[in-house]
Amino acid sequence: MTTSLIILAAVIILMAMSIRIIQQQRVAVVERLGKFQRIMHPGLNLFIPIVDRVRVYHDLRIQQTNVPPQSVITRDNVQVLIDTIVFYQVVGPEQATYGIFDYVLGVRNITTATMRQIIGNLELDETLSGRERISSEIRTALDEATEKWGVRIERVEVIDIKPPLDIQEAMDKQMKAERNRRAIILEAEAAKQDMILRAEGDKTSKVLRAEGDRASVELQALGEARAIADVAEAEKRRIQLLIEGGLNDQVLTYKSFEALEKIAMGPANKIFIPTTAVESLGSIGAIGEMLKATSGNSNKA
Predict the structure, then answer these.
(1) Taking the CB of residue 66, how many other CB atoms lie within 10 A of it?
(2) What are phi and psi of 64, to 5 degrees?
(3) How far is residue 292 from each of residues 70, 125, 245, 278, measured CA to CA in Å?
(4) Measured between alpha carbons, how far is 291 from 224 in angstroms, rounded to an integer?
(5) Residues in CB range of 160: below 8 A, 6 or more apart
(6) Interhelix angle for 249-264 vs 275-300, to 10°?
(7) What is the pLDDT of residues 130-169, one digit of tens each?
(8) Major place of localization (predicted)?
(9) How far apart are CA 70 and CA 49, in angstroms?
(10) Biggest CA-to-CA distance, the chain
(11) Mean pLDDT in residue range 33-38
(12) Which pTM value belongs to this model?
């Protein structure tokens, strides 16, 4: 009875040991008698206990590793401290297991060596302004090395570049002086723009005022010309109506005489009569005398 229980317990233990449940985004490298046998993927997996064993589990998600701050000397002999972070992903579990002892350590070491080589060819100003270039060159070097490790480099970021304290103070002073210079230039530019805008506004105002005065004079002259034309047209029309009404020069002269008579009744001491009016009046008088003579002869007969 006891032996049977032992055997049953051993069978249960072996069955439990033969079952492996792998979580999502994880894989397991299985060796059989010390030799690579297969990769177990997420889900339920069976394998032979004692004969097979899981060498290592790999996380297939994107991971990150911080490269410890490195003291690097630039081409102009300035020591700077650079902090870097690398994002990577295991894409070949077998190569990541057998290609290198510790791929994370390998990534850090390659990053450090490449960074020293890159910074050694750059001056301090180029180093401070060339983070993107440094990150790109480190990633290129890592891609070449990690391809056979089954590791893909997703991104390399230079987090911080710290120059020595005295250099930082000098840079701060330089930056402050540069900001003051830019502020002075901007203030001068603003004053210049203000003067220009004021001058342009004054010029535009004068031009508009002159154009308004000229337009006013032109309109006034046009109005006067039209008024004169209207008066002339009215006078022309009046004369035409007088002619059409049968008025000749003698009647007009007689009308002039009537007007002179009215003037003579005024306070004027002297009256100047036009020559044509005198001649016309003489003619009228001669006609009157002729009519009187004719009338006298008729009465005698």
Answers:
(1) 11
(2) -135, 150
(3) 148, 133, 29, 21
(4) 52
(5) 69, 81, 82, 83
(6) 100
(7) 889 899 999 999 998 898 899 999 999 999 898 888 888 8
(8) membrane
(9) 46
(10) 201
(11) 92
(12) 0.57
| Integer angstrom CA distances of residue 229 from 224, 233, 292 | 8, 6, 49
Gyration radius of the chain's alpha carbons: 60
- Cβ atoms of residues 157 and 84 within 8 Å: yes
- Beta strands 79-90 and 151-162, pairing class: antiparallel
Neighbours of 138 (CB within 10 A): 25
Query: What is the DSSP secondary-structure string of 47-113?
Result: --TTTEEEEEEEE-S-EEEEEEEEEEE-TTS-EEEEEEEEEEEE--HHHHHHS-S-HHHHHHHHHHH
pLDDT tens per residue across span 229-271: 999 999 888 878 877 776 666 666 666 666 666 666 666 555 5
Q: Retrieve residue 222's tokens.
A: 């046009």
What gap in Å lies between CA 258 and CA 264, rounded to an integer? Answer: 10
For residue 9 the two structure tokens come to 């317990």
Of 211, 117, 127, 132, the C-alpha closest to 171 is: 127
